[in-house]
Inverse folding.
């Protein structure tokens, strides 16, 4: 059975709406107290009345996430470039990068907060977000640069390309699709890292969305917890979609992941 | 007598394997290459003919021996087995690449790329992306990119192997024309014996690995070549001569292993 595009677009929203209505009715009928499970309308009410505080917290978390993400992108791509130029550095550093990645960040976070966070808690939060977000950026960039056709590299050698020309004309554009894949993962992880960091930092030192959740939890204000949670989801979804949009804008014309879904072009091609 | 533009003197190439003992892949090979002459290199797969071409192009360093180029300002064009085009750049920019890397002025890049694209019959496709072109057209772009720097040495690594026979024959005809018009030196690696006889003035037959030149065949054909040459008795004579040689070589090699 085939559905029209309109139906395909509407059904997920309709399903979500139905779920919310069912939630609202069930909680009201069963008279569940709001400190156990609030209704969607109660959560909405919190969003409306406390939107200034919540928006401020969203902004704080967004800032930390973005800084951690940007740090992950620059260091990930930068290190990938260095690895591609100096194999020895890759051999020496890679095990430690893996160690940094496999150690649960929640276990490192208190240490970082003690070392960095006393004077500057935001720096500590960014650092923790960076640790989480950095690895996929690095591995995807490295994979992208290693996947370049050796003949292409030979071509640049033949025309005596300088190292910087090779990087700008060949390596960065060729690895760009992989970097975007890394960025889509890193973007989400940066947010997770920022939230974990805020949780570890605890109340008082940071005022992001995670802090709102802790603080509302202490007051058993479950509706406010849901409101902050909702905003976190919105943040994550927005980051993902913005990066997907960037990917689409940069690759749709030439990359097989976008072009192969189009109708076959061979019909337009003149024969030899 | 034509000028010798390039000489190989006892060139060897070895792969260093894991145990660090050297594995000879190629050589020793000594050979001269002359201006306005097309040489084809044929041989069994794995004999190192692609490596030999990369050694000639300076893309690999020989383990021993010397490579001499007699003229100053030698320019090399290389056409790989695949078109190796930058997928994110249009046809014009792909053809401009060698000039861009050499730092030529933009206006000169444009005019020369236009000229060369016209030569390969793609002047109306400059703004297209590689994926919009057929396999044969992409190969023409690759050829244009190799020609645009006006190289005096043109190297081809089985460039038309993936194309259908008709397209391939047509490109072979055009290619020979272009190389001779430019008084360049062409070296052509192929596994197709008939293609080598069609294109080349001289054919070098490499042995099984480690590749050495076991036979040199001067092709007794006209300067201008077309379908008529392909149908001539002389053409077929050369083809069977080569085929016999290579069968013999593979027999000797397998006896050697037994």
């Amino acid at each position: 059975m085939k559905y029209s595009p309109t139906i395909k677009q509407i059904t997920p929203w309709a399903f979500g709406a139905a779920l919310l209505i069912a939630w609202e009715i069930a909680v009201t009928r069963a008279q569940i107290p709001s400190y156990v499970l609030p209704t969607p309308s109660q959560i909405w009410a919190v969003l409306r009345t406390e939107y200034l505080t919540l928006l401020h917290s969203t902004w704080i978390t967004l800032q930390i996430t973005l800084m951690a993400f940007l740090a992950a992108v620059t260091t990930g791509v930068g290190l990938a470039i260095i690895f591609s130029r100096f194999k020895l550095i890759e051999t020496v550093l890679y095990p430690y990068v893996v160690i940094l990645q496999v150690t649960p960040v929640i276990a490192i976070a208190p240490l970082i907060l003690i070392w960095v966070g006393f004077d500057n808690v935001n720096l500590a939060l960014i650092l923790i977000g960076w640790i989480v977000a950095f690895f996929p950026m690095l591995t995807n960039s490295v994979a992208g640069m290693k996947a370049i056709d050796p003949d292409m590299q030979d071509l640049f050698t033949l025309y005596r390309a300088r190292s910087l020309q090779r990087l700008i004309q060949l390596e960065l554009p060729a690895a760009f699709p992989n970097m975007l894949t890394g960025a889509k993962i890193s973007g989400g992880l940066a947010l997770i890292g920022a939230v974990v960091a805020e949780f570890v930092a605890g109340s008082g030192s940071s005022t992001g969305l995670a802090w709102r959740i802790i603080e509302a939890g202490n007051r058993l204000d479950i509706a406010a917890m849901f409101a902050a949670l909702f905003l976190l989801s919105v943040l994550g979804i927005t980051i993902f979609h913005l990066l997907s949009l960037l990917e689409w804008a940069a690759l749709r014309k030439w990359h097989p992941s976008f072009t192969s879904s189009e109708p076959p072009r061979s019909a337009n091609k003149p024969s030899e | 007598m034509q000028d010798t533009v390039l000489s190989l003197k006892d060139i060897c190439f070895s792969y260093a394997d894991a145990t660090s003992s050297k594995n000879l892949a190629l050589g020793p090979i000594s050979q001269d290459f002359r201006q306005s002459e097309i040489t084809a290199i044929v041989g069994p797969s794995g004999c190192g003919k692609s490596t030999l071409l990369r050694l000639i192009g300076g893309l690999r360093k020989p383990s021993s021996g010397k490579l001499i180029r007699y003229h100053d300002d030698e320019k090399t064009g290389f056409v790989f087995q695949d078109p190796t085009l930058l997928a994110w750049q249009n046809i014009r920019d792909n053809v401009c690449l060698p000039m861009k890397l050499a730092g030529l002025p933009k206006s000169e890049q444009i005019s020369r790329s236009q000229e060369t694209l016209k030569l390969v019959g793609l002047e109306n496709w400059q703004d297209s992306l590689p994926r919009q072109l057929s396999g044969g057209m992409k190969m023409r772009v690759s050829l244009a990119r190799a020609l645009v720097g006006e190289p005096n040495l043109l190297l081809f690594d089985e460039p038309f192997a993936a194309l259908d026979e008709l397209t391939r024959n047509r490109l072979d005809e055009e290619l020979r024309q272009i190389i001779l018009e430019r008084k360049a030196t062409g070296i052509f690696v192929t596994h197709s014996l008939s293609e080598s006889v069609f294109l080349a003035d001289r054919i070098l037959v490499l042995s099984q690995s480690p590749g050495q030149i076991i036979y040199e065949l001067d092709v007794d054909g006209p300067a201008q070549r077309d379908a008529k040459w392909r149908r001539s008795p002389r053409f077929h004579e050369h083809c069977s001569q080569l085929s016999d040689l290579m069968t013999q070589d593979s027999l000797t090699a397998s006896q050697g292993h037994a």
Observations:
- Residues 64-149+178-250 of chain A form one domain.
- The interface with chain B takes residues 149, 151-152, 154-161, 165, 169-170, 173-174, 253-256, 259, 265-266, 268-272 of chain A (CB under 8 Å).
